[in-house]
From TrEMBL:
<dbReference type="GO" id="GO:0003677">
    <property type="term" value="F:DNA binding"/>
</dbReference>
<keyword id="KW-0238">DNA-binding</keyword>
<dbReference type="InterPro" id="IPR005149">
    <property type="entry name" value="Tscrpt_reg_PadR_N"/>
</dbReference>
<protein>
    <submittedName>
        <fullName>DNA-binding PadR family transcriptional regulator</fullName>
    </submittedName>
</protein>
<feature type="domain" description="Transcription regulator PadR N-terminal">
    <location>
        <begin position="6"/>
        <end position="90"/>
    </location>
</feature>
<dbReference type="Pfam" id="PF03551">
    <property type="entry name" value="PadR"/>
</dbReference>
<feature type="region of interest" description="Disordered">
    <location>
        <begin position="180"/>
        <end position="201"/>
    </location>
</feature>
<dbReference type="InterPro" id="IPR036388">
    <property type="entry name" value="WH-like_DNA-bd_sf"/>
</dbReference>
<dbReference type="InterPro" id="IPR036390">
    <property type="entry name" value="WH_DNA-bd_sf"/>
</dbReference>
<dbReference type="InterPro" id="IPR052509">
    <property type="entry name" value="Metal_resp_DNA-bind_regulator"/>
</dbReference>
Length: 201
């Protein structure tokens, strides 16, 4: 997931490590915290694999001409995706297996880069995610019906809240799927306009 997100962000533009970490936090939506201790080892591995390259400015270029030795700060390393990195990103974008839509946070990351994903792949991922969430919903309903009489009202409300959340995700996914299918067929979802009032003159 981290490799995919890094490649997706660098596919948009080169970034230095601090900016990349900020953008990753937005893409991951708070699902996990990315520390420099996990980011930089991943960047080193990806650079060793030829997926990204670095551009580090010469240290003296950042110093005034009259600066004394050793007072300058180290320049920011800029990371850029390579041709091999773009190829790897497009390979990952095309994957539609369970890892693309099951729980674990990868679905949200895939969704963040849907603009780089072919429509038929987007549909397969969305439909796979909906099936996964529908299975979760059925499991919650079964559990609730079996344990309803043994639960106190607070636990019962918690389970109902979870079921409502899953219901909302199923509806949201269905709307996304309908929109993708409408665009694929050349139709646009109807947008209701203002209601016309009858003439009274």
């Amino acid at each position: 997931m981290l490799e995919f997100a890094i490649l997706g962000l660098l596919h948009q533009s080169p970034m230095h490590g601090y900016e990349l970490r900020k953008q990753l936090a937005q893409v991951l939506g708070g699902l996990r915290s990315i520390s420099y201790g996990s980011l930089y080892p991943a960047l080193r591995r990806m650079q060793a694999a030829g997926l990204i390259s670095t551009d580090e400015p010469p240290p003296r270029a950042l110093l005034p001409a009259d600066a004394p030795p050793l007072t300058g700060r180290r320049g920011k390393v800029v990371y850029t995706i390579t041709a091999e990195g773009k190829e790897r990103f497009h390979e990952l974008v095309g994957e539609t297996g369970p890892e693309a839509y099951d729980d674990g946070g990868f679905f949200g990351v895939r969704l963040a880069f849907f603009r780089h994903t072919a429509r038929d792949v987007r549909l397969r991922i969305l439909e796979g995610r909906r099936r996964t969430v529908e299975r979760q919903r059925e499991g919650l309903r079964t559990s609730l019906s079996r344990t309803r009489e043994r639960l106190d009202r607070y636990t019962l409300e918690l389970q109902r809240h979870g079921l409502e959340s899953v219901d909302r995700e199923v509806r949201w996914l269905s709307e996304l799927i309908d929109s993708e299918r409408a665009e694929s067929s050349g139709d646009r979802p109807a947008v209701p306009g203002p209601e016309k009032r009858p003439d009274t003159d």
